[in-house]
Design a protein that fits this description.
Helices cover 28% and strands 35% of the residues. It is an alpha+beta fold. GO terms for molecular function: acyltransferase activity, transferring groups other than amino-acyl groups.
């Protein structure tokens, strides 16, 4: 999937350094993650490998210019305890937000989750300065806030709430899942 000069594609091993850098910025400068230390490059590579081995989508958005390809953001899903639910994770590089990168990544991720027969997607959003924009972003994509967990996270000595956003697909919670039709 591409939008102008931005291409959304499956992750590759060559993306690990860029993903680690983008995540480090989120850890250091925001409350979108409650991590206080950035995982090592090795741990990031292992996480990518585990997600790919499960057959789950892990996407990157990149742009190519005279210096070659540059990763602008990444998004992936994890399968929490509930088989038909996909937990959504998305990060966009500092300086690239507001260009449509996140929307491209999420639209591609939603399409992939529909293809894999997930019933719902959830997105946990940390409560901090500016994170109301993340809630609004997910609402524009059809997600709804289903829960606010008070004091769920802590970062930089502050107690923070977590908003759980959910998007129902393939009937969501309304239609019981067909246990014979498992995601690919």
């Amino acid at each position: 999937m591409s939008h102008g000069d931005i291409l959304v594609r499956q992750v590759s091993e060559t993306d690990v350094d860029a993903i680690t850098t983008i995540y480090d910025d989120a850890v250091t400068n925001s409350t979108v993650t409650y991590d206080e230390e950035t995982p090592s490059r090795g741990i990031m590579a292992q996480t990518i490998s585990e997600i790919k081995d499960e057959g789950l989508p892990y996407l990157v958005a990149e742009v190519r210019d005279s210096n070659g390809p540059k990763v602008l953001g990444f998004a992936f899903v994890r399968r929490p305890a509930q088989y038909y639910t996909a937990e959504t994770i998305i990060y966009v590089a500092d300086g690239e937000r507001g260009r449509g990168v996140g929307r491209l990544l999420m639209e591609a991720l939603i399409k992939e989750c529909k293809r894999q027969a997930f019933r719902r997607m959830m997105a946990p959003i940390g409560d901090g300065p500016g994170n109301g924009a993340m809630v609004a972003f997910f609402e524009k994509l059809g997600f709804r806030c289903t829960r606010r967990l008070k004091g769920h996270g802590n970062k930089n000595g502050k107690s923070l709430d977590t908003f759980l956003m959910q998007l129902n697909i393939h009937g969501g919670a309304v239609r019981p899942p067909d246990h014979r039709a498992k995601p690919e």
